[in-house]
Specification:
There is one protein chain. This protein is of the alpha/beta class. It contains 13 helices and seven strands. Strand 6 (193-196), helix 9 (203-221) and strand 7 form a beta-alpha-beta unit. Helix 1 (2-12) packs across helix 2 (16-27), helix 1 packs parallel to helix 3 (31-44) and helix 2 crosses helix 3. It is globular, with a radius of gyration of 22 Å.
Length: 314
């Protein structure tokens, strides 16, 4: 496991190239690379747990990348280090993705205290890439204060990202109050902060209306939740609302002190077990089993019992 040890040493020393290569390693599907990746994760895990892990979601066109660029530079101006794991949608036809977040975040990508890593989401649901959690752990071990996960968009399946992070920000546009019916209820229920973005110029009046509508909806949806989700307005163009946003984030982490990490670990453990089970199932040759069932020589439940014994035999 020489490669894993080399990357681990580089990450400990703050070598950004080692971090990039480490993420490439964990994203690889090569069996040899996967063994090295597993060893790397074992090595870096004791160094994790300090970074604030924050998801940033919102409808297409709401300005997620613009917000991350501006708010990220604001945090860096306060001596914070920021990693951004930006998920790009993969074409279902070609399998390709744009991976253009570095071009959209020009100032952030050029700063020594920032790291931007675009990854395709591939076939993974939930607005995240298959190895987002592992990439996040590498960034945590590297020493970043904040890790932002920019998701693909808003949808019911995207709720899975809430199990990866400590804090969930939902960006909405001014005038979006009328679109509340089109937003999945679940995405509002897990949001820890709703930001009405682009609240500048002529949009300021619309932003106030949207704030009122979202506050009213959240009061109903989250009436049994200890954290009452604030609704703020901000503008990346005018750099307004950032202090209030930072204040809400600080208040949340002081109040809950990473209590969600235990649940995150529980979900991750279950996912790893399911991955191993899927690998086992894929290794089975089901052709003969299906043929016997089809010919009426046996029934599907009997074959299920046999296959279950074979899967768990080892």
């Amino acid at each position: 496991m020489r490669k894993a040890q080399e990357l681990f040493s580089g990450i400990k020393k703050g070598d950004i190239t080692s971090l990039s290569q480490g993420i490439t390693l964990i994203e690889s599907r090569n069996p040899d690379h996967q063994k090295e990746a597993r060893e790397l994760l074992k090595l870096i895990y004791p160094l994790t747990g300090r970074a604030k892990r924050i998801a940033i979601s919102g409808t297409p066109g709401v300005g997620k990348s613009t917000f991350i660029e501006s708010f990220g530079m604001y945090l860096i101006g306060k001596d914070q280090k920021l990693a951004v794991l930006a998920i790009d949608p993969t074409s279902q036809r070609t399998g390709g993705s744009i991976l253009g977040d570095k071009t959209r975040m020009t100032h952030l990508s050029a700063h020594k205290d920032a790291f931007i890593r675009p990854s395709p989401n591939g076939e993974t649901l939930g607005g995240i890439a298959a190895k987002t959690r592992e990439a996040m752990l590498l960034c945590d071990a590297f020493g970043f204060d904040f890790i932002f996960i920019e998701t693909v968009g808003v949808g019911q399946s995207e709720l899975s990202v809430s199990h990866l992070v400590d804090f969930f920000i939902l960006l909405m546009q001014p005038g979006s109050g009328d679109e509340l019916q089109g937003i999945k209820r679940g995405i509002l229920e897990v949001s820890d902060l709703v930001l009405i973005h682009k609240a500048d110029g002529e949009n300021q009046k619309l932003a106030k209306i949207a704030q009122h509508d979202f506050k009213r909806s959240l009061a109903i949806l989250q009436n049994d939740r200890s954290w009452q989700t604030p609704v703020l307005a901000c503008s990346s163009l005018e750099k307004t609302g950032f202090e209030e946003t930072e204040s809400v984030i600080d208040k949340f982490f002081k109040q809950y002190n990473l209590e969600s990490r235990k649940t995150q670990l529980q979900i991750w453990l279950k996912e790893l077990l399911m991955e191993q089970l899927d690998t086992k199932i894929e290794s089975l040759n089901l052709k003969d089993n299906l043929e016997r069932i089809y010919k009426g020589q046996t029934d599907i439940l009997n074959e299920l019992d046999k296959l279950s014994q074979e899967i768990f035999r080892d």
